[in-house]
Input
Amino acid sequence: MNFFTKKTPFYRKKKLMIPLIIILFFVVLRVIAPPIILNQINAQLKEFSPSISGHVEDLDLRVLAGGAVLEGITVKTKKDNKQFLKVESVDGSIALRELFKGNVVTEAVVNKADFTYTNGLMPAVKEHVAANKDKEDKPLPDIRVARVDLKDSVMRVEAYPALTKEQGVLMSEINARATNLIPSKDLPKTIFSMQGKLLESGTVKVNGEALTEDKPLKWAVDSEILSFDLTSLNRFLKQKVPMTFSKGELDFFMEAKSEEGKVAGYVKPFIKDLDVIKSKEEFKNTKHWIFEVITALGNITVRADEEAATRVPFTFDGTLKAETGEALSKAFQHGYVQELSRGIENSIQL
Output
């Protein structure tokens, strides 16, 4: 019998204890921290605005990966207690490699956002802006938001049930990306893109860039709508303008930019196989100008191999000004004599 049992050296115990302590720390952090952080987030979302409040249902920390997932996010206007935003989840992460260099670089993925433009939203936003107008701007933390992705989302409009049918869906299947949301001197430009389905018909694509630190804000954007069924507008058109479509398909291209608070750009509608039913009532104001152009194009589609197009320059400086007369005079030239080039011209940039 060996009465002199050999003891485990202290340094070996230490090697074992250190990883156990680290593991225990992360387990405790994973279990205890989320409820505390979630309560703090919800307290902030409840009181950050006199007119808007938010709530997060659950928080999942991913300690080792350097990220977190917020689930069940809702935002509503306080006055009418009406929800205008619901998000299934937001998956955020911090680039650990950059963190070790002393830089905070984040990314986020927003899954299944459901946004509704309610009747009470704009008054609530104005109240929020007015309440924060006199507050001093706090310096932004030294954080770089490298990328935010929006996936499989929906946009609804409450005010126009005739346009958006029962569910109020204006756009669906929305996928978008924005990069460099917090700009710096070295990286001053924010880039964004979006694609979705308009009124369950045409495909919408948008690309743009912005200098968000400039005052006033500078931006440039190009967009296109492809294969849009014009008859889907009829219930809405009957309430707004003296015309409807019995058939017709629209491809629509636009470029615009804003500098010094003024917007300038152009639109190019391409109309195919169009049949316009117009009442005896005349167009009353400049808000109807695009429909006036489409009506004129409809009048020439029979003579233009069932397709016509034109280009309409416009400006906006508090009032929309569109060169409708020029567009109508050239509609015959573009639609009947020669074809106007399809697509974005890339003629407008910051």
Notes: The longest helix spans residues 10-47.
